[in-house]
Specification:
This protein has helices at 3-27, 32-66, 73-86. By secondary structure, it is an all-alpha fold. Helix 1 packs antiparallel against helix 2 and helix 2 packs antiparallel against helix 3.
């Protein structure tokens, strides 16, 4: 596993811990404002993971495309992925 994948896995592990923490906060009846702040933190963290995954995929596709005859199908694939990610 390369360093980028390790970073993504580490972030996902932290997010998993945050989500478990939110569940515990709800079970304990903690303050809604604090819960919502944690939810916002998880959303930001998951968006960062999505960006990292997209960047890693884009880089590998671009590198593969430059090693062979020009084939722009990867651009369509990446734009489709980007559209799904942004939505």
């Amino acid at each position: 596993m390369d360093e980028k994948h390790r970073q993504i896995i580490n972030r996902l592990n932290r997010i998993e811990g945050q989500v478990k923490g939110i569940r515990k906060m709800i079970e304990e009846g903690q303050n809604c404002a604090e819960i919502l702040m944690q939810v916002a933190a998880v959303k930001a963290a998951i968006n960062k993971v999505g960006t990292m995954v997209f960047q890693t995929h884009f880089r590998s596709c671009l590198e593969a495309a430059t090693e062979k005859e020009p084939d722009l199908d990867f651009v369509d694939e990446l734009m489709n992925l980007l559209g799904k990610y942004i939505s």
